[in-house]
Amino acid sequence: MQIIIHPGHPKCGSTSIQRALLRNRHKLAKKNTYFPDNNFVFSFEKDCNLSADTPRLYFKNIHLCQNESSLEERLIEFEKRLIEIKGFEEKYNCKKIIVSAENLVNRLGGAYGRKVHELFAKHFNDIKIVYFIRLQEDFILSAWQQWSHKDGTTIEDFVKQSIRQSVPNYLNVSRFFASCYGQDKVKVVPLHPDALTNGNLIEEFMLQAGVDAKELNTKNVVFNETLNPYLCEVLSEMNGVYSSIHDPLVKKTLLKFTGNAKALSDKAPQFLSLSLREKIRNHFDKSNKILHREFLEEYRFESIFQPKDVSETGQNDRENQYKEIIKALISPALINKE
After folding, report:
1. Per the confidence metrics, is the pTM higher than 0.90?
2. Which of 6, 15, 118, 150 is a good FRET partner for 204, with 20 to 30 A between their CA atoms?
3. Spatial contact of 70 and 25, defined as CB atoms under 8 Å apart
């Protein structure tokens, strides 16, 4: 039995991959390939949640243990589960298991995250890590849109915080996996068209997972899109709009009200200024070169780490973005007026 671990990175297409697994569940089963639900239960077992595509919640419960004794209990339970899974090849003809959960990159410096991987490595020899990354400047902007603007953090402060903490630290994560599983079992893949099979994330993932994708639905559907950063900037200045950084209701409400107006989800990469992008690039340049040398030599550095051609945001562009957002918000009210 082979174990494919897809640990993210967060904001690097994980949801798209997980939804692709879900919509191809039956075809994957014909290939003796399975993935666990949110409770680490499989489709051939009783009580499997067939609408779940990731065991992220299962690992979250391990990460959130309040003390060492509760962590130990969880890890004992997890190890028993892994031992049980080892018998699935003979019992259910299960040849491959795909574990996709982007929180498997969390807390690797401590026991809460590290020991999960140590247990995988202890009980399975045939393991492959498929780890996707993207340009740090793109990750930082997307992460701010997804989470940090909700607590009032400005993009400038979030960039400073990310640089100070060196987040995302792809090099350290990759090195951790190499030390835990072996360098030859770690595949780092840039989320870049030049690095993806036919420019398609799902095809590339299936290729790396050793799954024949010919009969699969490999349409690369984008999920979990963020709100326009200009709109995020406005929302960040409004107290009490969000209950937490994980609150999805504002986005859902606005998109529903406007009929998923394009202006509200415009990526607007120019929002992140050239000066902030330069600071991010300068900070991560050294680690990116080491990452390339140790894990990505098959790709051209200049290709996968080449900065995007993004123009500086001018006042006119900012005003135009706000105008389009206002139009999108006002239009439904005018259409529905009595």
Report:
1. yes
2. 118
3. no
Residues 199 and 240 in one domain: no
Q: Are residues 187 and 307 in the same domain?
A: no
Q: What is the number of structural domains in the chain? A: 2
Range of the structural domain that residue 237 is part of: 229-335
What is the token pair recorded at 318? Answer: 């900012």
**Rounded distance, CA 16 to CA 222, Å?**
6
User: Token pair of 39, please?
Assistant: 């409770």
Domain shared by 187 and 248, yes or no:
no
Do 7 and 49 have their domain in common? yes
- The tens place of each residue's pLDDT in the chain, 338 residues long, gives 999 999 999 999 999 999 999 999 999 999 999 999 999 999 999 999 999 999 999 999 999 998 999 999 999 999 999 999 999 999 999 999 999 999 999 999 988 899 999 999 999 999 999 999 999 999 999 999 999 999 999 999 999 999 999 999 999 999 999 999 999 999 999 999 989 999 999 999 999 999 999 999 999 888 778 999 999 999 999 999 999 999 999 999 999 999 999 999 999 999 999 999 999 999 999 999 999 999 999 999 988 888 767 766 666 788 899 999 999 998 886 666 54
